[in-house]
Amino acid sequence: MIQLKQVSKRYGDIVALDHIDLTVQDGECVVLIGPSGCGKSTLLRSINRLIDTDQGDILVNGQNISTYKAEDLRRQLGYCIQGVGLFPHLSVFDNIAIVPQLLKWDKVKIKDRINTLMDLTGLPLSYLSKKPHELSGGEAQRVGVCRALAADPSILLMDEPFGAVDPMTREQIQLAFRKIQRELKKTVLFVTHDMEEAILLADRIAIMYKGKILSLETPGGLINGKHDPFVNEFIGADYPLRLLKRYTLADLKVINVDSKSQLNQVSYLNEFSTAKEILSEILKSGSQEIMIQKTDKTKVIVSYEALIELLQKVLNNEIV
Ligand SMILES: Nc1ncnc2c1ncn2[C@@H]1O[C@H](COP(=O)(O)OP(=O)(O)OP(=O)(O)O)[C@@H](O)[C@H]1O
Ligand SMILES: [Mg+2]
Prior knowledge:
A hairpin with a 2-residue loop joins strand 9 and strand 10. It is built from eleven helices and 13 strands. Helix 3 runs parallel beside helix 5. The protein has 320 residues and is α/β, with parallel strands linked by helices. It is globular.
């Protein structure tokens, strides 16, 4: 668990953090989003003591960070730095191995762990001997993600970790990250500029502005328009449409049909397709419903009404 109590930080006249209260529960993923300069990185950096705050208390797993030994804090926190921050003179392997080596893991365990992480982030093992300057921006970011996960910390601080990754790889990594976060119950504070990334990954979204958290809500909760005017403007009028990316066919009411039926079938959609993709296909089809074949070859019909119903359930907090 991470707790910030009335945390403030100034740089001269700039108030980077203004009396921040925030708790990230065990196993929860809170996504921080807000305009450039609103204090997101400052907030993350204050948690792992890269910067000292002026006021307030920060607790990691119930203990004030000022009382931790540096090594004990490092063991619990994985940190993915904005702009990657790999050590240029070290190979990819040695960059990822930094914390496990500091913690004196044995060589075989480090190698196994690194192989698993390279696979998870879609990087070839042949890259382990490369130096950071031989990587593309997106590849370097993925190495940064491997490094943050390396020692299997219970808490992850991720500062725009997928910003330079191309959209297709990015979506794969987002889904892989969501899977590990949920399976391994990592406690995550994740910074992004991308609202759809926030919608996909967050249990709660914190919207920051000028050093303050203006709103802290579930992605579904944000749909209720009872916010500060800045928050309404920030999430945008198309927020309900973007929110559909969080849900899949499994969240929609469907009608099972005969597997021989050919009616309006959209061949590339399946049970992993998002509600947003399904809506796009319904709009494109010009009809009220489409048929989708799941990977087990069974077929279902999903209608426009099912999407309306889904959003109503989200509005009524029946689904998160
Ligand atoms: N070391 C520093 N010295 C002086 N001012 C700083 C320092 N670090 C950050 N700031 C200022 O504090 C404010 C918050 O910066 P921060 O890096 O937290 O923003 P951010 O929300 O992460 O922005 P971005 O989305 O661009 O990464 C900014 O106005 C920034 O200029
Ligand atoms: Mg930043």
